[in-house]
Automatic annotation (TrEMBL):
GO terms for biological process: ribosomal small subunit assembly. The lineage of its organism: Bacteria, Pseudomonadati, Pseudomonadota, Gammaproteobacteria, Lysobacterales. It comes from Marilutibacter aestuarii. This is GTPase Era. GO terms for molecular function: GTP binding; GTPase activity; ribosomal small subunit binding; small ribosomal subunit rRNA binding. The keyword Membrane applies. Keywords: Cell inner membrane, Cell membrane, Cytoplasm, GTP-binding, Membrane, Nucleotide-binding, Ribosome biogenesis, RNA-binding, rRNA-binding.
Amino acid sequence: RAGHVAVIGRPNVGKSTLTNALVGAKVSIVSNRPQTTRHRLLGIASFEAGQLVLVDTPGLHRDQGKSTASAMHRMMNRAARGALEGVDVAALVVQAGRWDEADAFAYEALSNAGLPVVLIVNQVDRLKDKTALLPYLAKVSEGRDFAGVHPISALKRNGLEALVETLLKLV
Ligand code: GDP
Ligand code: MG
């Protein structure tokens, strides 16, 4: 198995840390899909079961931190215009305990583009009250159709195995 995973999320949620945690030293095998200029290659994560080509979709989430209506519009338009072409699955990275407008709009844009969206709830190690995680996951999942929900710590490398398993099933 091999496929493209768009890594999406607000600044500082841990996208780079996650990418680095997933991408090992083995970067020799490239997927059979053509790499388009719409994407910026972040890395290739190789596992026994397959490869995940991690890509950034420039413009899709760069403005999310601002949380303004116009930034949202630009993001939705770009998604609609095909910024996600060639992407098999979207990995929406959020910070545990936090879910704001930008995250909600990113989900909308990605699922409207027809992509399975895997929610990655990162930085769970920073949660002071661990019992807050379940209600948070319930709140965020309500009314949304995530292809998977994975609480992880990219920094401490917790939860990555199950996440990879989910992603490989979707590519
Ligand atoms: P990006 O902007 O989404 O690419 O975020 P980065 O990967 O650059 O991470 C932003 C900051 O969050 C850095 O200081 C990381 O060390 C930190 N960070 C990322 N993942 C985790 C995590 O799982 N736990 C903790 N405690 N910090 C994290
Ligand atoms: Mg980064």
